[in-house]
Amino acid sequence: MGMTLTEKILARHAGKDRVEPGDLILARVDLALGNDVTAPIAIDAVRRLGVREVFDREKIALVPDHFAPNKDIKSAEQTKMMRDFAREYGIVNYFEVGRMGIEHVLLPDEGLVVPGDLVIGADSHTCTYGALCAFSTGVGSTDLAAAMISGEVWLKVPASLRIVLSGRPGKWVEGKDVILYIIGKIGVDGALYQAMEYAGEGLSSLPMAWRFTMSNMAIEAGAKNGIFPFDGATRAYADVRAKRKYETVVVDDDARYAGELHVDLSALEPQVAFPHLPENAKPLSGVGNVSIDQVVVGSCTNGRIEDLRSAAGVLRGRKIHDGVRMLVFPATQEIYLQAMREGLMEVFVTAGAAFSTPTCGPCLGGHMGILARGERAIATTNRNFVGRMGHPESEVYLANPAIAAASAVLGRIGGPDELP
Amino acid sequence: MEFAGKQPNGAHGMEFRGKAWKYGDDVDTDVIIPARYLNTSDPAELAKHCMEDIDRGYAAKVSPGDFIVAGKNFGCGSSREHAPIAIKASGARAVIARSFARIFYRNSFNMGLPIFEAPEAIDGIEAGDVLALDMERGALRNETKKKEYSISPVPPFMRELVAAGGLLNYMAFRRKGK
Prior knowledge:
The structure holds 2 protein chains of 2 kinds.
Chain A (H helix, E strand, L loop, with lengths): L4 H10 L9 E5 L2 E5 L3 H10 L11 E4 L9 H17 L3 E2 L8 H7 L8 E4 L13 E4 L2 H10 L1 E5 L3 E7 L8 H12 L8 E5 L8 H9 L8 E3 L4 H8 L19 E6 L6 E3 L7 E3 L10 E4 L1 H4 L2 H11 L9 E4 L4 H9 L2 H8 L2 E2 L20 E4 L15 E4 L2 H10 L10
Parallel strand pairs in A: 2-3, 2-5, 3-4, 5-6, 8-9, 8-11, 9-10, 14-15, 14-17, 15-16, 17-18
Antiparallel strand pairs in A: 1-7, 12-13
Chain B lengths: L10 E2 L2 E8 L6 H4 L10 H5 L10 H4 L5 E4 L11 H9 L3 E4 L4 H10 L3 E3 L12 E5 L4 E4 L4 E4 L5 H9 L2 H11 L1
Parallel strand pairs in B: 2-3, 3-4, 4-5
Antiparallel strand pairs in B: 1-2, 2-6, 6-7, 7-8
């Protein structure tokens, strides 16, 4: 019996010829990640155990991105704890403010995650790297501590849900719409404990940026990971960035799946997920009149250069609605520079948007764009839970960058085709 | 792992009694402990804000040994270990749900918060019901409603984690063994 992409990568990292869904394995990690929210608990655990050395100084990444640049004294203490630990333990991949970015965009762009890898991170969106045909999943701080010490993680091999894509997406439809549509279909626990594995001829029309967005939101369907097969697009992305040699995997023809879902990309409209769950996705034409106070473009989901191009393309020559605040967060310093070089930053600022240094900021209601009671935002982020961007009585609607930008001009949720 | 804050009591052997705090489906970690409080990992501080965005009364009124009871996919969303830490430090003895989101599930075992899947029991439990949980027999009794349910057994590896007092203690034992 054959193996899925996830099973192949897990078997290789557990030193086994094969694994099956349900097997508990101890697997070797290629990279373990923590941020300023989750790393402090892990660091505290490592120190309390009296451990003086991590398993590999080059295979740990520490990124202060959630409350950084420090939003208050407590946040400053947390990032300082990471910084001190990184210096003392000689962690090579610590990224200081000014050189950092949002972790899940930064690490693959820096070539620190490569195809075939097994990566764990104390952040639920660690599943983003599935776009590279790597196995990656979110864990907690204690798992991170254990991995920093031992280089290993315990995992239960997940069954896989096969998602077969066909057709080509139409105008204004991006990767965000595909994943919101899928989550809308299967629900926020539709892939609970499972791997989502993409397949089908529709893959050829998905650029890497869109695949990262789709893998990123696998967790919003409850999945352990969301993985794409390795192809020419993966190779083109990885070969110019990879800091290590990589070894790819190919799915077996007779791999077994827990289920199969077919998505015709050509039939999709842009999607908008209504509060307070990502599964509340509706086609844009069914949204109705929803006025907004704030627009956020950015995050590990949609803060890539392609996302900024998409939003700026809609905003060029237009002004943001009087009643709307728009905030743009390039995900890394490199993307920030590229946006400057391409003139995108000027488009945003001229239109009346704020353009920020990279941070997770408002996505998790941390800082830099918190909502007041009763306020409403449309965001390219990943979650619209109660209180996610601020007051528990505020609302977040999820959409792609083009829809977010068009909504900023309209003052209500809408698409670029509605713009004068 | 020791935590500041309220400590559960009322345990008689392996049976625990306490009252139910009932919630719905898809309770996410953002409402268990809102991100605006994640600039600290101090358990007592986190416990003060536990469940605040869906239940402002919980943190002040929960008694040591009470149970959180919820529907499907409890703990979905962020990987923040602050969520099980906040629940444990709030004094709750355990979480009983129809199902759990996977990161919350592993975090709870890793840091020693007992959680149980009891799909049949959930609908019949109302807020305030007195529950008795027998971990050894795998039984959950609703004393208010006079009904007993079985709870899904914890996998052997997870039982080892709990017996060791969490993942890090488990690892420490293994390291000593080498």
